[in-house]
Amino acid sequence: MTDEARRTAPTPATVNARQHPRASEGPVSADDADSPTPVAGRRTRAPERFGVPLKIASFVVALFLFILAIQLMKEGAKALAPTLSDSPLFSNAFSTLGAGWLGAYVVLSGSPVAAVALSLYIGGATTELQTFTMLSGSRLGASFVVLLVGFLYTFRNRGRNRGESIGMGVLALSLTAIVYIPGMLLGYGILKSGMLDGVQLSASEDVLSVIDVVWGPALDALTKLPGWTLLPLGLGFILMSFRFLDRVLPQLDGERHGGGRSAWLRRLWPMFALGCLVATLTLSVSVALTVLVPLASRGYIGREESIPYIMGANITTLADTLVAAMILGDPVAVQIVLAEAIAVSIVSLIYLAFLYGTLRRWIIALDDWVAASTRRLWLFVAVLFLLPALFLTSGIWIGPIAD
User: How far is it, in rounded angstroms, from Cα 350 to Cα 43?
Assistant: First the structure.
């Protein structure tokens, strides 16, 4: 190579400087290497900085909307009481069972419909038995969202296990039915026996005074609207409150938190306790059970292992309904919720302690039979809508039934 060629040939340092211009400016610090620009670093830290204040603000908004919704639905129920009392769709305990059941399908959650049931009772639109059956119906329909999510998850992940995704929804609905139907009968027996007459739980006078001061102006402004609009408006507010509450509560994502299959996932009582805990924290059986769909599809948990989890979640999901009853300030409304919770707990514990092997075999066999065929699955869905519709319209072809 000539001297001229040597002088003009690029050296390694020159090439490095051309490819990495910042290298010629001196040593690159660790902070400079990790973040392209100071602005980008500030952007990544901003959500962490405002995360806690946003959660606090979301909780305050959720609490405000929840209590405002309960008060609105109580006032709306009073306005609608004469109309609903004369309606054949609310004329007996079967019709209110169907109303609660279908209502949970519509809003994809049982808790708002349960709050409506209690508000109707406080407003004089329904009797004690009708309120109890409407509350039970809201629980029967609450798990429908699990089946819906199973359908959507199957379509989105066509390569996944279809039977596990959809089967989890079938399992959740079937288990809820075999627990809540006998629990409904036992619970009403407990309620009518007078065992809970001594329970006089309600929000204290101080709490009710605070509610009047804080929520009074908003309630006075909204109650100027036509009376028939207050009940659906309250339902909308309570749905909004749950949306804000979702931002505060622990986020459950089966795909992120599935992990490996731990030994305790195969144990009965730890899974039962976990179901109780998750439904209590999220205040929604819909959220607590929906997370099972991706877990089952990816093989992190089997349907048999999820049975005690579902049964636990179906008990503590009544926690928010109990709070709503206490805010409404009627001891009988609290007794209705407690009777349901006690009865469902008794039935669930009997199944798990003495009949678990038989229950597991039969419920999984039914689940496999339904999920194995598209025709059977659509038949199952048709029955899910036909039964509550028949109950809802029972007042037309049976008429009023005395409690």
Answer: 54
